[in-house]
Design goal:
The protein has 402 residues and is an alpha/beta fold. Helices cover 33% and strands 27% of the residues. A hairpin with a 2-residue loop joins strand 11 and strand 12. It is globular. It starts with a strand and ends in a 10-residue tail after the last helix.
């Protein structure tokens, strides 16, 4: 027999979008239950970039000082090495204020931080190890969720279910919401390599013919992302681990003495890149946000921050009506109307970079000149303000209104 619970909103997924939505709604007086299928947030190689847009939200919530006491690495600019030359692409100092940098922070620390503040609210409940299995329907309206938790089956009734369960959203599929695949020419292999004190003190990209390597400074180690052609992971495995590690050492010579710490393919994780959008983000009683509504390319590292922007917009638009029990289908559609424009613009820019730059680099077999846009950005510091704003704040940034 299933246990039963009820709330004014049930959020499926305890990632950045789901936890932030749950926290902001509960903070505004809405009874919220968040379901997270894992027992903790300790999963590696997730989006670790906290952009100025998210830092400003922390400041608006009065949590910035406490948040920045968590371990993190600040990046005031983004740069890429092409061959032996460094090109500066974005300068976040131009944004002004306290939040003029990207904070590289393990996502589990960010999620633990939001969860701790949310749990302090009496009307917030986070159910870990609880997996949403099916939606509960009343005619064509979603009215709750059937789940399985540590103590067995569970049914949660709620006038609104928010699907925040990622790019492979089971909840979205259960609601029969179609997705438009926009395509991606690459996947990413993630791995760790030891970091030494003599290494560069910055997060950067390394670009050589046939290889793109992203390196994130985690203090004691580098979190590395090697961009590969779409579907190319199996071909690399067939060529052997030694050949792959040799290509990393050639792309980044100061790592040559450390690539040997990778002794097995199990230490290298494949991120299958998707860029897509749900054609419709809602149906009666259900709203998709974050990756469940739009999977972003890793270009610019903006996915986490766009998901958080969705959560803020959802709370701003729906909190009062959820408390009063007056949320309409048009209110849910209004959420898509507000957030789809920045998503479309961002994805269009990502697709242009993927198709014009990433695809060309991965196909190159000899040295090449940096793209004109990158050369202009490097030569004219004032121009770096535009990518800093687009990457750091995004299109139509949201602000806390709850």
């Amino acid at each position: 027999m299933s246990a039963t619970l009820s709330a004014q909103c049930c959020v499926v997924g305890g990632g950045p979008a789901g936890l932030m939505a749950g926290f902001l709604l509960a903070r505004a007086g809405v009874d919220v239950i968040v379901l997270e299928k894992h027992g903790d947030f300790l999963r590696d190689f997730r989006g670790d970039t906290i952009h100025p847009s998210t830092l400003r939200l922390m400041e608006e919530l009065g949590l910035l000082d406490e948040f920045l006491r968590l371990p993190h690495h600040k990046a005031y600019e983004l740069a890429a090495w092409i061959g032996e030359r460094k090109y500066k692409a974005a300068d976040f100092r131009s944004l002004g204020g306290r939040c003029n940098f990207i904070a590289f922070m393990p996502q589990w620390d960010f999620l633990d931080f939001i969860a701790a503040h949310a749990r302090a609210l009496p009307n917030f409940k986070l159910l870990m190890q609880t997996s949403a299995e099916d939606l509960v329907w009343n005619g064509d309206r979603v009215v709750g969720v059937k789940a399985t938790g540590p103590e067995g089956p569970l049914e949660i009734s709620a006038p609104l279910v928010i699907a925040a369960d990622g790019r492979g959203s089971h909840t979205r599929a259960e609601a029969h919401l179609d997705v438009e695949d926009l395509g991606a020419p690459m996947d990413v292999l993630w791995f760790k390599l030891p970091r030494e004190e003599s290494d560069p003190d910055e997060t950067f990209g390394r670009i050589v013919p046939g290889r793109m390597l992203i390196m994130i400074d985690r203090g004691s180690y580098w979190q590395c992302g090697c961009v590969i052609p779409k579907g190319g992971a199996e071909e690399l495995r067939q060529k052997g681990l030694e050949a792959f590690l040799d290509s990393i050492a050639k792309a980044t010579p100061f790592l040559a003495d450390r690539v040997g710490t990778l002794t097995d393919w199990t230490q290298i994780n494949l991120l299958t890149v998707q860029v897509n959008r749900a054609k419709t983000w809602s149906r009666p009683g259900l709203l998709c946000i974050g990756d469940a509504a739009h999977a972003m390319s890793p270009v610019g590292g903006v996915g986490v921050n766009l998901a958080i922007q969705d959560a803020v917009a959802a709370a701003n638009l729906l909190a009062t009506k959820l408390r009063l029990g007056t949320v309409t289908d048009d209110d849910l559609a209004a959420m898509q109307r507000r957030r789809e424009f920045p998503v479309r613009v961002t994805q269009r820019l990502q697709l242009a970079i993927q198709n014009r730059v990433v695809r060309s680099v991965l196909a190159a077999d000899k040295s090449f000149e940096a793209p004109l846009a990158l050369r202009l950005l490097n030569a004219a510091p004032l121009l770096r303000r535009l990518p800093a704003r687009l990457i750091g704040l995004g299109v139509r940034p949201e602000h806390i209104a709850t």
